[in-house]
Amino acid sequence: MSVSTPKDESRKTAPQKNGSGFNLVAYVRDVRAEAKRVTWPTRRNTLITSGAVLVMVTVTCIFFFIVDQLIGLGVRGLFGVGG
């Protein structure tokens, strides 16, 4: 059994250039053009998202601290070992 790709979904390859080496000027121009197309978040969106991440990290740390303490308490109660 062979797998074939439909004609309308054929792979597109980057055009091959007949030059040799790397063109730094063209690369920088392409990077700048691509950066202009990026939708950058506003300062407010960045602050809100960063705050949400910090809150979730704090909640997660507290949760795992409590779970760790409960597991340690259980191990000490069952086996009598540990601090």
Give the integer mean of the pLDDT values: 85
| Approximate helicity band | 55-70%
What is the terminal-to-terminal distance? 63 Å
| Poorly predicted ranges | none
Radius of gyration: 28 Å
The total count of strands amounts to 0
Q: What is the strand content?
A: under 5%
Question: Could you give a quick summary of the protein structure above?
Answer:
The chain is an all-alpha fold and 83 residues long. It is 61% helix and 0% strand. It is found in: Cell membrane; Membrane.
What's the topology here?
Blueprint: H1 24-37, H2 43-79
Function: Essential subunit of the Sec protein translocation channel SecYEG. Clamps together the 2 halves of SecY. May contact the channel plug during translocation.
Family: Belongs to the SecE/SEC61-gamma family.
Pfam family, one: SecE
List keywords for this structure.
83 residues, transport, Protein translocase subunit SecE
Architecture overview:
Pfam families: SecE. It comes from Gluconobacter albidus. InterPro entries: SecE_bac, SecE_sf, Translocase_SecE/Sec61-g. The longest helix is centred in the last third of the chain and has 37 residues, at 43-79. The protein has two helices and no strands. The protein is an all-alpha fold.
